[in-house]
Amino acid sequence: MTILVTGAAGFIGANFVYYMLKQYPDADIVGLDALTYAGNLDNFSAMTAEQKRRFHFVKGDINNRDEVDWVFSEYDVRAVFNFAAESHVDRSIYDPQVFLRTNILGTQTLLDVCKGHWKTAVNAWRAGRKFVQISTDEVYGSLGPEGLFTEETHLDPHSPYSASKAAADLIVGAYHDTFGMPVIITRCSNNYGPYHFPEKLIPLMINNALNHKELPVYGDGRQIRDWIYVKDHCRAVDMVFEQGRPGAVYNVGGNNEHENISIVKLIIDTLRDLTGDEEINPDLIRHVQDRPGHDRRYGIDATRIREETGWEPETTFEDGIKSTIRWYLDNREWTEKIVSGEYMEFYEKNYAGR
Ligand code: NAD
Ligand code: DAU
Fold first, then answer.
1. d(CA 158, CA 92)
2. 8 Å CB contact between 315 and 231
3. CA-CA distances (angstroms) from residue 128 to 26, 122, 317?
4. Per residue in 271-285, pLDDT tens?
5. C-alpha to C-alpha distance for 33 and 8, rounded to whole angstroms
6. What does DSSP assign to residue 297?
7. Model confidence over 296-349: pLDDT tens digits?
8. What residues contact 96, with CB distance under 8 A and at least 6 apart?
9. Rounded to the nearest 5 degrees, what angle is found at the Cα of 144, between the Cα atoms of 140 and 149?
């Protein structure tokens, strides 16, 4: 079978490509990615020769109908996993438009081209064809101290990012209801792990601490996120692809809520233990101006996916965060190339003209 992964060169997309290459040894994977600032071909450097033979990278934009159409004409795509998105909340506050373009219109373009190629969309599910939309728990808005998001929770997004993801969810649902498109939507909480772009909380704090730079904590730092190891998310997406119901939404969460400030302190302590560097200490923490519209708490009820597929998160936060921090220590060059901008040259040097 041929699987299309959009946003393959990003954080979760790249982890998912590795996961699926292992999980489906007979499958080919097409990775479609526009290589925005967040796309990094270095993320594929750990592939074995055998995996490289089954992985086909295409530089292309989900907003560009012709480019997407080319992929569907070239490959007999059985499954689409749409990870492509503008993903950073802070950027969406300063420049919302690209979020609306990629996350909403790009998703609709992808759906539409896919519908055209899968022609009898209504029968596509029976033929094993599926479109999995990777959404986020942020579409539900913010929780008080109690309660969890279920799939029935009212959509109440607050940032341009989360509003664009909520809009995409509605469009994906509309393609199911109107055209019978074989879709599934997943809504996951905060991922962490290897290849996480160093603008996001965990990799940013690791990189700043290693370089003895200030650690900017927004507001009081007592906002709560539910953290999940990226591989557990990848497995969840695969399990709903295999066992999920057409048109259904599945929450995915780590059952692992922490205040931001406690994550930052944990990173400091773990890094100091691993490196013996005494300059990595809480004096680096700076409470800075809060993010506008900052959601206070996310918490996930993942009963549905557990009951319908048997999925549960397997990695404890203690193990996951340690191995993530070790990965960043062992791969300092990966972050350094991003910070210096060198990672952007990878495509020209290794792929362009192929
Ligand atoms: P990321 O920013 O690391 O990667 C996004 C990838 O999409 C990049 O490789 C980028 O080049 C590509 N891309 C952007 N615009 C594109 C376009 N127009 N056409 C083709 N490719 C394009 O993001 P991520 O953290 O890996 O998130 C992946 C998906 O998972 C997103 O849809 C996001 O909303 C969702 N999600 C993320 C998290 C999280 O904690 N990171 C949690 C839940 C859901
Ligand atoms: O919940 C899922 C979402 O998680 C995904 O949909 C998004 O794509 C992903 O980016 C992530 O969004 P967050 O806004 O929660 O992640 P971020 O790493 O940007 O921030 C995590 C928390 O840390 C948040 O409360 C803001 C805070 N923060 C973040 C940064 C970058 C800081 O205090 N300081 C910082 O420098």
1. 11
2. yes
3. 16, 11, 35
4. 999 999 999 999 999
5. 6
6. B
7. 999 999 999 999 999 999 999 999 999 999 999 999 999 999 999 888 876 666
8. 160, 164
9. 35
Measure the CA–CA gap between 91 and 101, rounded to whole angstroms: 14
Please tell me the predicted confidence (pLDDT) of residue 348: 66
* Ligand 2 centroid, distance to 274 Cα (angstroms): 25
Does residue 257's CB lie within 6 angstroms of at least one atom of ligand 2? no
Collapsed DSSP state (helix, strand, coil) of residue 12: helix
Number of residues that make up the chain? 354
> Among 138, 232, 257, 295, which one carries the catalytic annotation?
138
To the query of whether residue 161 is one of the catalytic residues in this protein, the response is yes
CA atoms within 13 A on the CB side of 101: 8
Which positions ≥6 away from 181 have C-beta within 8 Å?
111, 114, 115, 118, 121, 124, 131, 172, 175
| Ligand 1 within 6 A of CB of 131 | no
**Span from the CA of 129 to the centroid of ligand 1 (angstroms):** 22
Residue 165 near ligand 1, beta carbon < 6 Å = yes
Q: Could you give the CA distance from residue 141 to residue 73 in angstroms, rounded to a whole number?
A: 39
pTM above 0.90, yes or no: yes
Tens of pLDDT, residue by residue over 29-82, are 999 999 999 999 999 999 999 999 999 999 999 999 999 999 999 999 999 999
What is the CATH class of 2-350? alpha beta
Work out the angle between the directed axes of helices 332-340 and 317-330 (0-180°, nearest 10): 70
pLDDT of 126 above 90: no
